[in-house]
Each structure stands twice: as C-alpha cells, then as structure tokens.
What does this fold into?
Amino acid sequence: MRLETEPNIPAPDDFYQALIDAHAGLDDRRSAALNARLVLLLANHVGDLEALREAIALARDGL
Amino acid sequence: MNTHSPARFPYTPPPELSGNGELRVPVAIVGAGPVGVACAIDLALQGVKAVVLDDNDTVSTGSRAICYAKRTLEVLDRLGCAETVVGRGVCWNVGKVFHRDRLAYQFDLLPEGGHKHPAFVNLQQYLLEEAMLARLQEVGGEVRWKNRVAGAAPDGGGVTLSVETPDGAYRVRADWVIACDGARSPMRDYLGLEWRGQIFRDRFLIADVHMVGDYPTERWFWFDPPFHPNQSVLLHRQADDVWRIDFQLGWDADPEEERKPERVIPRIRAMLGDDRPFELEWVSVYTFQCRRLDRFVHGRVMFAGDAAHQVSPFGARGANSGIQDADNLCWKLARVVRGEAGPALLETYDRERVAAADENILNSTRSTDFITPKSATSRLFRDAVLDLSVKHPFARRLVNSGRLSMPTTYRDSALDTPDADAFVSALVPGSPAADAPVRIAGRASWLLDCVGGSPAVLMFAAPERDAELEQLVALASGAKVVVVVPAGGGAPARDGIMVAEDVDGLAARRYGAAPGTIYLLRPDQHVAARWRRWDAQAFEHALARAIGRTEVSAHAA
It folds into this structure.
C-alpha cells in the first residue's frame, strides 16, 4: 500500500469540522461542486497515481 | 457555396479492357486518399511498382482532416511533399479555452526550437491531397481514377481484384494489396472482417466557413458558452481564410434540420457576436466512433488509415495516424516484395500500428468523455476542473478538448534491440528519431533530412575512430552512415558517409550522446538500437533484426 490509511491528521476533529463547515449554506448542487473541487485539489497534492488508484478502490469498496 | 473548386483528374480507359482483361502488379493500393497516396509515393521511392485504384476522380470534399502534427510533416518531408503543405498551411500556437461566459485560460504550444517542422499545421484535406498527388505524379506513380474495386479474392499467392470502370470491368492480380479505402471500407466487407468499437451517442455540426478579416490564428474551444448552452464549440483556422467550426448538438438533434443554412447561420452569427460577413463553405452533421479491425494484416491484404481504425476527431488523430501507418508499412512491404525479408516483417506492421491505433483510440475516447460527460457526476467533475483551471495551473492539465497527436513509440517491438548501455535521453528504442539543426558540407540542414528511406546509422564524434568507422561502413550495407561531429569539427572525407556538424549541440543532447555513441535508425526514422561504443557483432545483429533480414551473415554468428 502506498496510500496512508493509518491516522495521519494531527487534529482530526478540527479537520472534520472544517470539512462540514465548508458546506454550510450550500445547496446540494453547490455542495457536490465543492466536493468535486476538493477531490481534484487533494489528488493533485498527493500526485502519486498508484496511491490515488488505491484510494479510488478503497472509496468504491462496498458501494 | 464552395470557395474551392477541387481538382478533377482524367479517367483513362484501362488498356486491359482491350487486352487480356488482367493487370498484374506487385502492389495494388485501394483508395487515393492521403493514406493511399502516401503509400504510393513511398513505394515509388522504394522502386516498387504499385497502382492506386480509386472509385472517384477528385480529391475529398467537405470537412475532413485539418491538423497535421510534426511527425506527419516529417513523414511528408521524407516523401517530398512537406514544403507545399507547410507553405500553404496555417501555423498556430495559441489556444484559448472558454467556460460559460469567460476565458478560463489560454496556452501557448511554445514550440521547442531546433526542429525543422512546427508542432502543427492546419490545412484543409483537399489541399493536402492535391499536394500529395502532384508529388506522386512527379515520382511516376499511377492512379487509376474511376476504377472501383468491386470485389477481392485473396489466396496464398496474391489477391485478385474485380475492378469496374465506366467502360467495363477487368481484373487486377496483385501480389499484395493495401486497403486505404476509408472508414466505410468496402475491402473490409469483401474480406468479411468485423469492425468493432464504440459509437458515441452525440452529434456534431461541422461547418467550414469562409470569412475575411483580421482574426487571430488561434484555436478557441468553448465549454457551455452562453450562445450555445450545455454544449461545446470549437473554432479553428485553415488556409485561405477558411475556418472550421464544430457545434456539439447532442444525440437528439435532427441531422437533416441542423444542416440547413437557416439553422446554421444564426448559430454562427451568435458565436461571432457581431455582423461580420461570412460564407458557408460546407456543412455536415456527424456522429463519432472509435473502432478498429482486430488485425491490420490479413494474408496478402494490409489495411491502413480509417479503413483499419477510426477515431473521434478530437486530437487530430485520423489523418495523422493514417499517414504514420503508411510510413510504417511501406518500407517493410518494399523489402518483402524485393525478397529481402520474409512476410514476418509485415507482422510487425500489424503489432506496431495496432498498438498505435489503441493509443489513439484511448486518447480520443478520453477527450470525447471530457467534452461529452456521460453522467451527472462526470459533468460535475468536468465543470470543477474548468472552474479550477481559471486560477490553478494543475487543473489546466486535466482539461481535455483534444490531446495533440504524438507519434507512437514502438515499445518492445520485435525490430528493436533493447538497451545494453545506459542512456539519459527522452529517446528509447522504438521512438521516432529526434530532429536537430546540422550543417552538411557547409550548408544548413536538418538531421532528419539525412536519414530515412533506408536504415541509417548515426555515429557521434568519430574522427579518431577511423578503424571503427571503416568497419561500420563495411557492415552497414545499404544503410546510410552519418557521422555527427561537434560544431566546427570535421571528419576525414570517405566514401559512403555523410558528415553532419551538430551546430547547436542539440543532436548530442537530444540523443544523450557522447563521443562514440552509435544509433541505428529504421527506414521510417524510428530508433532500432543504440550503443555507447562500437561492437561489430552487436551492430550486425541489430541491423538484421531491425530490417527483418532473414539470414545474418556467417561471420557475425
């Protein structure tokens, strides 16, 4: 595995709150757009195609 | 409506009609489009007799290919008709991408210096065909216009074609046939071959428009513009003030209605946003498909161009890949016809160009998926990419309105010899050879002008390697030998070698070469093998392998 799945965010509650707060006041369409932008920005930050493929597979698992 | 009156070519009643009714020829080429004519020129240059059969008597009409990539221009140059194409064509570097009502970003192809040919030239297909046919005439090639191939019967020793003319029917008995008869290829049907792939559920209005004025030579692509909501639009310049405009219409559009001038003119008027005058040159409504034959070689019939593979037009991969098919095929076929190689060499055409077709289909399918998202989520991501592209360069790399056609590297080809030595270079065995400015006998020239048509050897900076060079010239029978020396350097004059002065050092840099480095190039200018130092035995093996020579001479074994 190249993808980090062990805890890696020092302040997990702060991150989660920031994520939910970002969606405040957005309708479903805008929320979906925000999520899509976020995925693209973070994917570029990761950069490693193999890690991204692993993340895609894990996210898809069980759906 | 048409500002160009296409050249018509004379039909001559074939002599076989009054003779024994059969023409015998080493190679018959079906179809006088750019791919068939490229094959005919190449074979003529190789000294192989070929005849081109075409059911029409003119060049193509309507909205066909317009963009020719650098590699295609290099092939056309080797065939001797690039000058007209580059001279008449339009060179463009700036592309603009619009999303909704604003410019998202613009890009500049910023062509790297030190190449003879630009990244791209735009020229309407009929002008390309006219230039190529003029060249074919110059090299003594034969096209039989209004000679329709109505049937093909292949057997182990050749192919018998039934040919119909205005004056009656006759047979052509050919040892080999190249089928370049286009996307609807009747030759495929005669051989009962399956034509599989994907048809995109979308329609596009393609208009060629003549408008005179001071418009920038740029490629403009709109996603979801206010004048054509939810769809895409492309504007691209061709020669003689003709512009190509594509309107995405969606699957439910009525093709008959949409091509009517009263529907088309208001669309263009809305796009231009002003009253400037224009004339419609050609209008059609297309659907696109990506498909290919399972194999391109079927016994003695080889398929090339759209007859072998079809792509959507985004990325200009139709004509470009077809001409590159011809480039790959003809030297091989010529060697087989002359008995210098066995039919196994033609198998490498199948492998290499099937891989190229898959690469082109993959790229063109990806572009089509970006332009025509197939689900709400796909559309969501597409729009997110475009929104981010305004401020963030990373997102611009994800925008896909057509990826520039790049030549295929023939990786792991049976003709390549894998590297034994270390190289730091973008080139690998199988890559098309890189160009560089050189000086030959005091005159400015280009490295690619020195090679091609036959195998070639580049030996870098070799004046002190006289004995090696002597051995190389002896072993390189039939290959061109080019000694690449640094600027101001020289090499002893010798029969059978050409000395190329690497004026800007770009040849050495692009080939990752040091003194003593040797590159072996195939007749189609692709890298076959390379070494850091001379090794006679390795060279002889690699040369035999690269050109499919059946026997390696005894002393090399």
Summary: The first strand of chain B starts at residue 22 and ends at 30. Chain B touches chain A through eleven residues (CB under 8 Å). The radius of gyration of chain B is 25 Å. Residues 344-371 of chain B form the longest helix (28 residues).
